[in-house]
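Course assignment 3, question 2. Fill in each field.
Student: A.L.
Task: Predict the tertiary structure for the chain below.
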Amino acid sequence: MAWGSSSSSTPPPPASTLSKIVPLALVLIVLSVLGVVGFYVYSAINDIATGANKHLEKKKIMCSKDGVKVSVKQVEDEKYVDRTQSVLVNAWNLSAVQGRKKA
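Answer field:
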């Protein structure tokens, strides 16, 4: 009797089936709500990424796993040759000395 009362207490009654199922149901409901919210967030992020990728592709910027590639505007060969030739002719003409006779 030195360590506590010697009166015998009756054990608590067994838990009912309903009190065992309620916590499990609450956990399942919380997990399903988190799953639905997570799915909508994932879908929204994918839609935003797809839209941004299409917008960048219109501006000729390609994003891939390898990196970012920027394509340049195509110039026709004939126009390129004409521009190069005109620059060279202008440089030739400007480099000629004013007082020197052309042979």
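Instructor remarks: Strands lie at 61-64, 67-70. The mean pLDDT is 84.
Grade: pending
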